[in-house]
Amino acid sequence: MARLTRITGGTAGAVLSATLIMGCSSTETEGQNATQDGTTAAMSEETAPGAAEGEGITVTSADEREPAPGDDEYFTGDTTVDELFGENDSSRASAGSVSFEPGARTAWHTHPAGQQLIITEGTGWVQEEGQERITVSEGDVVWFAPGVRHWHGATATDPMTHIAIQDTVDGASVEWLEHVEDDDYDSDRES
């Protein structure tokens, strides 16, 4: 089992740390030797629940990931895709950071379990089919419900980068459709 060394300030800190980090309740914590004022740090070693030796934490450095140009079949314009993580034995989620140069965008597509976008840089547009285009900026978070036909990308004049997070259902996380036509992309319809 993987070992976890944790330093916390006082009993309240130990309980909060155990609850947030390891998902265990206050009855599962040990070694919480806080002083009366609760300011002296306590140190304890615990076993992370459900973690096999060496499998409790996985860190992938940026140097291990190779950004690649977006596939012309799924993107229009200059895009760079950096896969951040893929699904594994414990999670169906995958995520990637996608950078769009001005005018670049995805093709129309849907996600069987929906999709979250976290806009990390720049200004972009998102659009659900049949709805007005919406401007998004750094710090915005976008949710596309499962099966909603949509596209997203940079504005015509500004680049945009987002992190896209989606789950896999029956082996697929996305269904790619046709490209967004220039007339639809350049449309003045916006909210």
Short synopsis of the structure:
The protein has 2 domains: 3-47, no CATH class; 62-185, Jelly Rolls, CATH 2.60.120.10. It is built from 2 helices and 14 strands.
How would you describe this protein?
The protein is mostly beta strands. The protein has two domains: 3-47, no CATH class; 62-185, Jelly Rolls. 9% of the residues lie in helices and 39% in strands. The chain has two helices and 14 strands; from the N terminus they run βαβββββββββββββα. Strands 3, 5, 6, 9, 10, 11, 12 and 13 form an eight-stranded antiparallel beta sheet that branches.
Distance between the termini: 52 Å
| Form type | globular
Compute the number of helices: 2
Low-confidence stretches: 1-53
Radius of gyration: 22 Å
CATH topology type of the largest domain: Jelly Rolls
How many structurally independent domains?
2
**Which CATH class of the largest domain applies here?**
Mainly Beta
Overall residue-averaged pLDDT value = 78
Classification by helices and strands: mainly beta
Can you tell me the CATH architecture of the largest domain? Sandwich
Instruction: Tell me about the largest β-sheet.
Output: 8 strands, antiparallel
CATH homologous superfamily caption of the largest domain? Jelly Rolls
**Count the strands?**
14
Instruction: Give me the strand/helix succession.
Output: EHEEEEEEEEEEEEEH
Question: What percentage of amino acids are in beta strands?
Answer: 35-45%
Helix content: under 10%
